[in-house]
Amino acid sequence: MRIRGRKLFSRMTTVFIVLFLATTSVIPASAASIKEKREEARSVKNQIDSLSRGLNKLAGQYNATLSKLSTIEYEIVFTEKELDKAQEELKRNESNLVKRVEWLYKDGNNSFIDVIFGAESFEDFLVQMDTLVQVGQADGRLIKKIKAVKAEIERKKAELVTQHQKQEAVAANLRALGKQLNAKLAKQQAILSKVEGDLAKLIEEERAREMARARALAEASARAKGNSSKKIASANYTPKRVSRGEPTPPGYTRIGNFLFPVSGSYAFSNDWGQPRSGGRTHKGTDIFSTRGTPVVATVGGNVVQRSGGSAGLYTTLKGSDGNTYQYMHLNGYGKSGQVNPGDVIGYVGDSGNAKGTSPHLHFEIQPGGGGATNPYPYLKGEK
């Protein structure tokens, strides 16, 4: 797979770096102001780092609980099938017993006395006695089997009650974890949005100051030289762009050769291979975020929008790097067709079989367009 890893800079850390550089090396301000900005930036970074650590841990707990719930649900389905089979067997056995009773009543009501006095010879007596004993044993086995099946049905019913109780308890725990996760993601997003808003304001203010300084210098030069054309040219002056300290713009996270697929606050854990509904295992990484958070093209390529099945709304990105990327459980679509890295191609949601879970992006990497591989090491920048 042609993805080279390098140290991962989270979106929050990237914004912090940009804000720090913008407030210390570009914008002229008093020492006190710079110190205040530095402290503010450090405080924001500490808050975000603390939230990120807690979020990823919480995401791991959520995924583990979801796996536990999926296992219980699968066991319930299995137990219900076993119960159905036992009830069908009981029905057949009871039907056979009813038929046997009817036959005995109508045609086969032979007693031991009937055998003794009805036998034409001693050999005939032995044959009839043997038949009578065998019939009695068969009837006994049938009745014993019916009792055993009834006992098994009661055990299965009791097992189902216990399983449903466990299911309710685990589901309640999952909902509680989901609320915590969603609240923390929203808090992180609020902090991040404020930082980005402050950054945009700082850049705009610096741009305005640069233009004012440029005009003042041009006008002074024009007056000194008596060349009015200099003053006119200054009106068309375009100042240099403020350096952001990172080739990847804030709002995106670059990992090796590709961008992190979620452009906003997020949390994820290594949930590859964990149990899921229907007895299957998880073949991707769930990246939790607030509903509607943009998801972006990790690389350039072609995007096809799809829907249906367990994936709900999803997009397939056939990357220019030769790999295929799947984005599932979307809340809505973004750009399709030919895209560049960072283009918004959808929004985080819970469509498909993720309905009711904490909003997340199910992300898959298929090297060379083949089978899926664990995305977690790539998302962590370990490969």
Outline the low-pLDDT stretches. Answer: 1-10, 21-30, 230-251
Number of helices: 6
- CATH topology category name: Glucose Permease (Domain IIA)
SSE series: HHHHHEEEEEEEEEEEH
Strand content: 5-15%
Overall residue-averaged pLDDT value: 77
* CATH architectural grouping: Distorted Sandwich
| Alpha-beta content class | alpha+beta
- Overall number of strands: 11
Identify the overall geometry. elongated
CATH superfamily label: Glucose Permease (Domain IIA)
Main pleated-sheet profile: 9 strands, antiparallel
How far is the first residue's CA from the last residue's CA? 10 Å
Work out the helicity level. Answer: 55-70%
Which CATH class?
Mainly Beta
Number of domains: 1
Radius of gyration, in angstroms, nearest whole number: 37 Å
Task: Tag the structure with descriptive keywords.
6 helices, alpha+beta, about 375 residues, Glucose Permease (Domain IIA), single chain, 9-stranded antiparallel sheet, disordered N terminus
Structural notes for this entry:
It is a single chain. With 383 residues, the protein is of the alpha+beta class. It has one domain (11-76, 175-379): Glucose Permease (Domain IIA), CATH 2.70.70.10. It is built from 6 helices and 11 strands. The strands form 2 sheets. Strands 3, 4, 5, 6, 7, 8, 9, 10 and 11 form a 9-stranded antiparallel beta sheet that branches. It has a two-stranded antiparallel ribbon with strand order 1-2. A hairpin with a 4-residue loop joins β7 (313-319) and β8 (324-333). α1 packs parallel to α4, α3 crosses α4 and α4 (122-225) packs antiparallel against α5.
